[in-house]
Amino acid sequence: MADLKAEIGPRKFIDLTKIADQSAIEKSRDLKLALNSKKLALTRHSLVQVKTALKETLPTSTEITKVVEKTVIEKIVEKNPSIDEDKLTDLIQKAITSTLNQQNKTIESGFSGIMSSIRNQIINAQSSPMQQSKHIETEIDPAKIAEISQKSIEKMTNQMESNAPKPVKKFNVVNSKNLDKQADEL
Amino acid sequence: MIGLDIGTMFLIKSEIEDVFNGKTSFSVERNVFLKTETTEDTEEILKNNNWTYVKLNDEYYILGEDAIKLKNLLNVKDKNDATVMTKSSELRRPMKDGVLNTGEEKLAVAIIQKIIGNLVGPAKEPGEHLCFCAPSDPVNANFSVIFHKTMLTNYLKSLGYTVECIPEALAIIFSERPTAEDPSEPENESAYTGISFSYGAGMANVCFCLKKMPLISFSITNSGDWIDLQAAKTAGIDVSAMTRFKEKHLDLNNIDYSDMRQASLDIFYQNMIENSLNNFAQKFSQLENKVDFPLSIVVAGGTASVPGFIEKFKTVLSGLDLPFKVKDVKLAENPRYTVANGCLLKAISSEKKSKA
């Protein structure tokens, strides 16, 4: 608490009246902050107790490296003795390099593709009818189309429900010819 | 044995009733369907009325003639005989311009197969012969009929039939048996030699046949439906009203030119006939071996069934400069059914040959 010129260690008590007068204590901003943040607490006899956060001891970087190395060795390297770290590094490096190269090639080819497409369109627009390539059409066999269509139509007719067909009205016509004899001629 | 005329507007089946007396039976079904509103009572109503329907994914579709009946019940006509639509959907056609309407979703193809299946039924015995007709490749549209023919052939085979397909206009030749004078042939006549014109709803089909062999075969998409559409535009009325007027009132022998409807129909009928004759003339000129002898012309089809058609045809024919001689022009014995009859004859012939 700089404005009271007082310093309190963890789990220590201090009588502020011995350090500063009452009005200074009441006006102290640092004290108010410390009390609000609960780093300090007032006691019955104005003794101050300090609550401290649990000490966190972070491992040092060398310690981390040792643990990782140990884990890697135990879990990875020892379980897969064929893995060579240098080889692995080399592989990873190659993979990264090839990916980067692939990306670059894609960008390059895409760009050159776009350019050649634009070039071709310009050429075609300027070319004479004689220079244009012949459009080749392959004829589709209508009989084949009919066969395929019939299958899909059969599906539909199988789903159809209908009532029984009525007998269609017949009417007789007498031809002047003998049908049998005429059929023989055909 | 069955002959089957698969037309844009109608499907016609022919069967033998009495082969020696030439007695044939014909069954006709409309090639159309109508989607109905789906309610809790829909299925019950359809069953109670005995209307032919199919149900797919909770949607109901009424088929054939029943679709027309329901449509007519739901429509209200105004004083000009034009149709004011009430709450109903449009009639849908599984075929357009003489072939499967692939512009529609595949539902239309599934529906027409259902209609055909209801009409012909499964083969009475395995391998029963069935002959159906298909249009020839059109000269004024860019599509092939192979898809149409293959789809229908495969479906009919699945019903157990031995199936063959012939050009529509060739079926007329088989049915009507036109002849030409040919001194080299027995009885000085060459049978199944002549020109046939089949005027349907979707297409007009034309064939030149020499002794049963088709030398020219083509189609034009400007036929019955096209006439209705163009005449309706010219007269400024609804297409369906024009179709009804044509079917009920038109007589090409007796046109009142003060009536826009009659005048427009007359113009476009003439145009259709001219178009078909001019296209035929062009192809005839391109034949390698010239045909000098006079040829019979046979005309058939629903569009040719209006009164006065054959007179109109002859009038147009006489006004054109054609590269062939005409022996005679006649309307088929039964213009509406002659195609189916020709298919039946072919089926009978094939059956006999297979058993020989």
Summarize the structure.
Chain A has 186 residues and is mostly helical.
Please, could you describe this protein's structure?
The complex is a heterodimer of chains A (186) and B (356). Chain A is mainly alpha-helical. Helices cover 53% and strands 7% of the residues of chain A. The radius of gyration of chain A is 49 Å and the shape is elongated. The model of chain A is unreliable at 46-50 and 52-56 (pLDDT under 50). Chain B has 356 residues and is α+β, with helices and mostly antiparallel strands. Helix content of chain B is 37%, strand content 28%. Chain B is built from 10 helices and 20 strands. In chain B, strands 3-2-1-12-13 form a 5-stranded mixed beta sheet. In chain B, strands 18-17-16-19-20 form a 5-stranded mixed beta sheet, sandwiched between helices. A 4-stranded antiparallel beta sheet of chain B has the order 5-6-4-9. In chain B, helix 6 (224-235) packs across helix 7 (239-249). The relative contact order of chain B is 0.15. Mean pLDDT of chain B is 88; it is low at 81-87. Chains A and B meet through helix 5, strand 3, strand 4 and helix 6 of A and strand 2, strand 3, strand 5, helix 3 and helix 4 of B.
Which descriptors would you attach to this protein?
heterodimer, A: 186 residues, mainly alpha, 4 strands, 53% helix, 7% strand, B: 356 residues, alpha+beta, 37% helix
| Content of β-strand of chain A | 5-15%
Could you tell me the number of beta strands of chain A?
4
Structural class of chain B: alpha+beta
Using DSSP, what is the number of strands of chain B?
20
How many strands, what sense, and barrel or not for the largest sheet of chain B? 5 strands, mixed
Low-confidence stretches of chain A: 46-50, 52-56
Order of helices and strands of chain B: EEEEHEEHEEEEEHEHEHEEEEEHHHEHEH
* Binned strand content of chain B: 25-35%
Unreliable segments of chain B (pLDDT under 50, ≥5 consecutive)? 81-87
Q: Average pLDDT across residues of chain B?
A: 88
Average pLDDT metric of chain A: 69
Oligomer: heterodimer
Instruction: Characterize the overall form of chain B.
Output: globular
Largest interface: A-B, 36 and 56 residues
Distance between the termini of chain B: 16 Å
Radius of gyration of chain A: 49 Å
Distance between the termini of chain A: 127 Å
